[in-house]
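Notebook entry, structure prediction.
Reason for the run: the old model in the group folder had no record of what sequence produced it. Starting over properly, with the input documented here first.
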Amino acid sequence: MFSVSGCFSETYAEARAKFCGAAAQAGGALRSWLNPKARGPNGETLYLDTARFGPADAANMLVLIAGTHGVEGHCGSGAEIAWMRSGGPAKLPPGTGALLIHALNPYGFAWTRRVTEDNVDLNRNFVDHDKGYPANDGYLAIADAVLPTDWDEASKAETDRVFAAYAQKHGAFGLQSAISGGQYTHPDGIFFGGTSPSWSNRTIRAIAREELSRAKRVGIIDFHTGLGPFGHGELICAVSPAARSFARAKAWYGDEMTSPEGGTSTSAVVVGVMTDAFPQELPDAEVTPVALEYGTYPVPEVLNAVRADNWLHHRGDPGSARGRALKADMKERFFPAGDKWREMVWARADQTIGWALKGMTRG
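New structure, fully documented this time:
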């Protein structure tokens, strides 16, 4: 028996070593992409790695993605490594392969941040940058409170006042949507979608074309953390309920699946999500994406950690004692310590992977 907890890592460097080792042990084909724009906190080089299993011409491809939101890569990495160490590659059905994408956003993973080296939220970056950006008037109304000048009791009280007034008018979920729905006006803010495709955006598109062009059916599981009850893995389908891929996902996952547009998810409706790239790059394949979102702590605590991390990198000192404390809090909010949460992550991941493989092989 393998140790589930031992599949998870405390740092990006540890996670990368474990991932590459597990992939080699399981007979996977490894490829690496160097991020030329960023280094880790200790000056280390940063890589996005992939491991591929199964026949080169597999009609069905399972795709597991870790680290879209960097710090959340601790979770996805652990699930990927657990799948490999538990014999997942050897149990793939005939005609089925798997592509594991590790540290899609290696900068965020290494620095304990959700965002990329450009302060971009990858799950808001996959819009058409040649067209006008979606408006978020709610964010405009609270932007100064999101990123205060100082991080102290006075600024906290002012932020609480602004947020409470907004929630009083628009509801708690309205406040969450204003903050997290995505914005394209404040490059120093949170949930910023960017003004051009990021390095990770361009790289994942190239990987999709190179690794998945022969597949007829592609089932994607993108690992995330931070929303929902502690340890619960919510299956979120972020496509329109009118889309064919939504109906397929519903057939695969049943009532376990939720929809932001349908109002059944803990997630706000967001635009420019990363998994949109796959049907765009693979127009001849049936692409069925879901996000597997694991709950950690109450949403206000999680959002406060994101705001604190954003303030730290724009107006504070990450190397200071306060910086280290804020970093430790950020990590805990997205990657809770202890074996219980990690075991819950793997149990749900194993279940979800099973559903995806069954759905694909049913045709």
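Summary: The longest helix spans residues 339-362.
The old model has been moved to the deprecated folder.
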